[in-house]
Amino acid sequence: MGVDAATITRIAREFAAADKALVYGRIGTCTVSFGTTASWLVDVVNTITGNLDREGGVMFTNACCRRANNAWRKREQAKASQLVADYSRVRKFPEALGEYPVSVLAEEIATPGEGQIKALITAGGNPVLSTPNTLALEESNEVA
After folding, report:
1. How far apart are CA 30 and CA 125, in angstroms?
2. Which long-range contacts (CB under 8 A, 24 or more apart) does 47-51 make?
3. Residue 99, pLDDT score
4. d(CA 43, CA 51)
5. Of 91, 95, 89, 98, whose CA–CA distance to 66 is shortest?
6. How far apart are CA 136 and CA 124, in angstroms?
7. Helix, strand, or coil here: 18?
């Protein structure tokens, strides 16, 4: 089972010659053995074929939510010495570019109070299976 060398060579040449193309990888490439290398290679292939940060290729994204965009504005307005614009509600973990580490998700669901996460919509994944401390996240969903 597998893909023969001739097919791999043909696909690589077609990809390199295409006007618009991109290699895309996320959770599937980065949560496996050699995931860092696989994720890095996605960027390498897009870069050497001229498909990085251009229309029809892979584009650098903007933050997907208003809160993340506001974090950029907060940071610009903050003093130069301030490194963090906000902290998570329960254990006060710092945000990075408007996002919190997924490791705080379970406690943000399970801990009552203002700002408690009461609903979560996911697409194409299951956080209970793909986040740190999966048992705590599963239990927080039962509590909430």
Report:
1. 14
2. 49/15, 49/16, 49/21, 51/20, 51/21, 51/22, 51/23
3. 78
4. 9
5. 98
6. 21
7. coil
99 three-state secondary structure: strand
- Residue 137 buriedness (CB in 10 A; 0-12 / 13-18 / 19+): buried
CA torsion sign for 79, 82, 86, 90 is: negative
94 SS3 class: strand
Residues in the chain: 144
pTM of the entire predicted model: 0.46
Average pLDDT for runs of 10 along the chain of length 144: 91 93 82 83 91 84 56 57 74 81 90 90 80 83 63
Q: Is residue 120 within 8 Å of 109, Cβ to Cβ?
A: yes
- Of 79, 109, 77, 83, nearest to 97 (Cα)? 83
Candidates 23, 53, 56, 17; CA nearest to 40 is 23
The residue ranges of DSSP E strands in 29-139, in sequence order, are none
